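Chapter summary example.
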Amino acid sequence: MDYDVIIVGGGLGGLISSIQLAKKQYNVLLVEKYTYPFNKVCGEYISNEVKSFLENIGLDLNQLGSTNISRFQLTSIKGKSLETDLQMGGFGISRYTLDFELYKIAQKYGVTFLLNTSVEDIQKVNEKFFVETNTNQTFETSMVIGSYGKRGKLDKSLFRQFPVQKQAFVGVKYHIKYDFPKDLIALHNFSGGYCGISAIEEDKYCLCYLSDRNNIKQSGGVHEMELEFMCQNPFLLDIFQNAEFLFERPLVINEIIFTPKSAVHKNILMVGDTAGLITPLAGNGMSIAIRAAVIASELIHGFLQKKVSRVELEGQYTDEWNKNFKKRLWRGRQLQKLFGNEFNSNLAISTLKSMPFLLKPIIRATHGKVL
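The structure predicted for these 371 residues follows.
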């Protein structure tokens, strides 16, 4: 079957793209390897820069139980602590709930979903793409959006090359019950990584951390690493001693890279983490994915209406991606160098405590304008 647009990956970038394009009456297919609802490794804090947009497309965040987050805490490995107000603020909601609700909105607008299915390869012949799945189906389209996450098998079949990153990271996520302020998001440092905690719906909290892979190798496993490395921070020690962990086992993702990626590859427009990943300590990865999806969808509309050529479309999208996100991602990488190390994290917090006027501009630099 021939579609106007095929979207590979049903995370935030893919779902928002599908909604925006289906609202304009395009025939959209979204291919997702899981079935909704499902959990994802993600910090589950979203900047308020996209809150109005999400409400305008039909999300009732209050009814879904999202939490309002207005304060930020940063701690060093040995427990030095710094707190500040978040100027723009944000809200907490699980990906399990958020993605499922967006999926239902997309269905309402007529998006076709192919779930429990992976895209194995994408070939372009003349002006048509041929999208091949692991179920031996091939679909034809004029435009493909790649929104398949931080790192996917499809990158290999597309021969997508990334710069080498010196440090390999592992991401781990839990949902927990814990005595913690609902309006506070905290970022706790430990040797080789950092861990965030913030409230989501149903009196639950998201606990998500990024660790140097060598920590896990050295300790012999995720749980052993948590005891050996993370619990050096007294704030994390208290969490691991007193929280109720709700998952049978943690969600884990390997080989996380923060090096720059291309926003367009082989005529495919990349959205969200597929185009570039912001470090978790800077937050806002979800708002970046949403904003990128809106930008891509509007430009694709112009292309499908034959107002711009494919070359013009790809140039415009690359320019918009760089304008909106390139500096934010770069700032995140620079901030990351200050944390996950005892000396650097102590120095950063001591400096910010003595010069608090620096903190708000740093936080503001990792946020975008209201969508």
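To summarize the output: The longest strand covers residues 81-92.
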